[in-house]
Design goal:
Chain A: Pfam families: Septin. Chain A: Keywords: Cytoplasm, GTP-binding, Nucleotide-binding. Chain A: One of its GO terms (molecular function) is GTP binding. Chain A: One of its GO terms (cellular component) is cytoplasm. The complex is a heterodimer of chains A (about 350) and B (about 300). In chain A, about 35% of the residues lie in helices and about 15% in strands. Chain A is an alpha/beta fold and about 350 residues long. In chain A, helix 8 packs across helix 9. Chain A has a domain of about 220 residues: P-loop containing nucleotide triphosphate hydrolases (Rossmann fold). Chain B has one domain: Rossmann fold. In chain B, strand 3 and strand 4 form a beta hairpin. Chain B has 9 helices and 10 strands. The chains are: A alpha/beta (about 350), B alpha/beta (about 300). At the A-B interface, helix 1, helix 2, strand 2, strand 3 and helix 8 of A face strand 1, helix 1, strand 3, strand 4 and helix 4 of B. Strand 2 of chain A pairs parallel with strand 1 of chain B, so a sheet runs across the interface.
Amino acid sequence: SCAGPVESKTEAAMSELVPEPRQKPVVPTKPMGINTSLLGYIGIDTIIEQMRKKTMKTGFDFNIMVVGQSGLGKSTLVNTLFKSQVSRKSSGWNREEKIPKTVEIKAIGHVIEEGGVKMKLTVIDTPGFGDQINNENCWEPIEKYINEQYEKFLKEEVNIARKKRIPDTRVHCCLYFISPTGHSLRPLDLEFMKHLSKVVNIIPVIAKADTMTLEEKTEFKQRVRKELEVNGIEFYPQKEFDEDLEDKTENDKIRQESMPFAVVGSDKEYQVNGKRVLGRKTPWGIIEVENLTHCEFALLRDFVIRTHLQDLKEVTHNIHYETYRAKRLNDNGGLPPMTVETEENHESNL
Amino acid sequence: YTQAVFSCQFSDSAGYVGFANLPNQVHRKSVKKGFEFTLMVVGESGLGKSTLINSLFLTDLYPERYIPGAAEKIERTVQIEASTVEIEERGVKLRLTVVDTPGYGDAINSQDCFKTIIQYIDNQFERYLHDESGLNRRHIIDNRVHCCFYFISPFGHGLKPLDVEFMKALHGKVNIVPVIAKADTLTLKERERLKRRVLDEISEHGIRIYQLPDADSDEDEEFKEQTRASIPFAVIGSNQLIEVKGKKIRGRLYPWGVVEVENPEHNDFLKLRTMLVTHMQDLQEVTQDLHYENFRSERLKRTGK
């Protein structure tokens, strides 16, 4: 964003134009030119508009995974986040249905549109997580799924004739639902987050926060934050990826005060003070989901969607995916794994 | 696992989710980082390339220019010289690299003169490919040539054999924008005739120059058509400021009048600049998606996998 008319930019512009030391091209360069005067307007700032048009045309992908025990309100929360029925709620396991023996991975895609922006949203549900008697290693299918998406992307990227826009099925964000026990994290929570925070962006949320009073909520959050810190769990936004002071200040506040978000979800509307609100009706009052004095849903929504959505994707692409890729290259002797995509041969030599 | 992906639009319940803000998030980072663009200029000596570049970006990219005499030029082969300047406008930073090709077309026998240029372009592709395939990809620098202004002499009757050969050799490697230089040596009629000649010859030889993408629904269709119809742009550049009607403008002072660079009735300079600046993103995209990908797949096929 700029301040001031173009004319007065001349003085300011000159101080910006200090040539930075830059990697030299292979051929001899002339000394860096410095703008001597900028009389008039060229129109370079229109590149922003060009990029925005392009991104609007191509649309956005966003893949969000939800992990947590049955009944913690995962589907409801996702539906509330995107104000659409994007996740099918399970009303518990019927007698006839069996609890899945292992964690299932269910990915369902939707296209939602707002203000001319199209988003292809994929919600990845993980029924069965933490529901068994013996939950050892129940995060493995999840880790496997996440790595499989990195693998898919990598394969397409190293293809000789590759697609213009590689379809992105990588998990950009994993909401981990913590049960509002009021005590502490459970061992399963720690194990899951320890393993998975290394491969995906984890955002811990405290589910069904309407079971706690304000004091209980504050204490519980503090305790959870402490436990995460003591166990070295780097949830999103990770400290080491703050790019500049601006990011750091903003993210520090979120990490140290707001997270984990204590949320309540609902897809039912009620009338409160003449307004239609999403909420939960109880004999003692209506819990308004988007009311910040009731719960932190709005904070989570703003965080994931309105401010950090792009960053979630970038960290996934630039950090988690690159880590995976580097490991694959190293395993392959430093060479990119090549595939010639033929009809018969969809196997690669990875 | 089950995966059902289907497209359908759910009507939102009374509620604003907020991801319409997404394009702004995307660009916040880009604006912070700034943009890079590499423009190559090719044409014989003396066609006004440097002057045009200075006029386009309101800068003096070549402050201490040394112009060699004819005897020196005999010895010279084509050089590649890259100059980089940082321009900032309304908070948007652009790092512009102009790749000049002095010596092009100067030699008595110009048969090999575009080999050096092809090599330069390929080298940038090669470096990018190498960086892209490496382990540490966090700071890849994009030095690839996004656009090439090819200067056509106004003194001839159309394209010269060298022009044809160059464009045929390079249209698969870079976006070519043909430009008729020193347009003030032509009357308007002569200009139109030359433009038509050039376009006919381009199509005759199957040369693929940069095509402007179709106008978006909210873009001025007519303006786009007008721009398209003006190609090749007949331009004039000037390093001199002349006072006309109380204003200082770039122009050329003749006994018979003043040629104004930024006057659309005098030449296509503004059209060229507008086209370049409003298509920077598209030029980069075509370079990446078409020229670079072609290079890459050829290259990978050659290393035999």
